[in-house]
Each structure stands twice: as C-alpha cells, then as structure tokens.
Write a structure and sequence with these properties.
CATH class of the largest domain: Mainly Alpha
Mean pLDDT: 94
CATH topology of the largest domain: Arc Repressor Mutant, subunit A
Shape: globular
Number of strands: 3
Strand order of the largest sheet: 1-2-3
Low-confidence stretches: none
Number of helices: 5
Distance between the termini: 43 Å
Largest sheet: 3 strands, antiparallel
Radius of gyration: 15 Å
Helix content: 25-40%
Length: 152
C-alpha cells in the first residue's frame, strides 16, 4: 500500500509517500493531488511545515529510500550534514573512502528520493557554485538561503 500526503511550501508542492513502514519519497511537484495519508506522511508533513516556518533544523522520521548500496551510503552521509552547512561531491567521496568517486557521488545525489530530509540541496560545487538539483536550482538556492548557508 502506498500512502500519500501533500504540503504546499513557498517553493512549490511536496508529495510525501509512505509504504506504511516509513517515508519512501518526498518530491517537488507542480500541483497537489489526492491524499491517502498515514502516520508517516502526516508526521513528515508536520515536520516539513515546521522546517519551512523556520522552527525545525532536523527531522525525526523513519526513512526507507530505495537505492543501490552505494547510493544509500551517500544518502547516509548527507543525513549527517548539519543544517546550514554545505559540502561538495569530492568531500563526500573522500568521506566514503574513494577520492575518485566524485562523479558517482553526484549521480547518487541526483537520485535522492527524499528531498530536503535527505539534504542533497546542501551539496554545492567545489568552487562554491550551485550545481544541479532535481527540484531546480531556484529551489536549491531558496533552501540554502532559508538555512543561512547561502548569503546572496
């Protein structure tokens, strides 16, 4: 069974999916849609609302992202990245023990199924430039400004 909630945010709608055991996806959408919530999607909606209101810097949710072993290792590293702090692909590759894995880290980052909570938006270019973001660069910049990590 798939459970679904939506949240309207200052940068678009978020669709929140659960399989009944935990959150499997949080994705930016252009519109909302029909809802069939469970406790996981409702908790995520509440915590994300608090994040956007500036009252939450971390999340306490059961996450069940579906990826390869390497992707899941990258996503675990991202979850350790504190609110308001950025990193780059090379730093994550080094943390994973393979300085040559920057491109693979970038690919895993781009496949992150749980936006914001697994904070792939906190990964920027080594030179400080914005790099790709599945939700769009404008959203990435907004999120980083919201967290105080980008002062433009």
């Amino acid at each position: 069974m798939v459970y679904q909630s939506y949240l309207e945010t200052p940068i678009g709608f978020l669709r929140i999916l659960s399989n009944g055991d935990g959150i499997t996806e949080i994705k930016f959408m252009d519109t909302d849609g029909p809802e069939d919530p469970d406790a996981h999607t409702e908790s995520a909606r509440t915590q994300l609302r608090e994040y956007f209101e500036g009252n939450r810097a971390s999340f306490q949710l059961t996450l069940i992202p579906n990826g390869t072993e390497f992707e899941e290792r990258v996503w675990n590293v991202l979850q350790e990245l504190p609110f308001g702090i950025t990193t780059n692909y090379g730093s994550i590759a080094k943390q994973l023990g393979d300085v040559n894995a920057s491109q693979a880290v970038g690919s895993a980052n781009g496949k992150n199924p749980i936006a914001i909570v697994i904070p792939c938006h906190r990964v920027i270019g080594r030179d400080g430039n914005m790099t790709g973001y599945a939700g769009g660069i404008e959203r990435k910049e907004w999120l980083l400004k919201h967290e105080g990590a980008l002062l433009l």
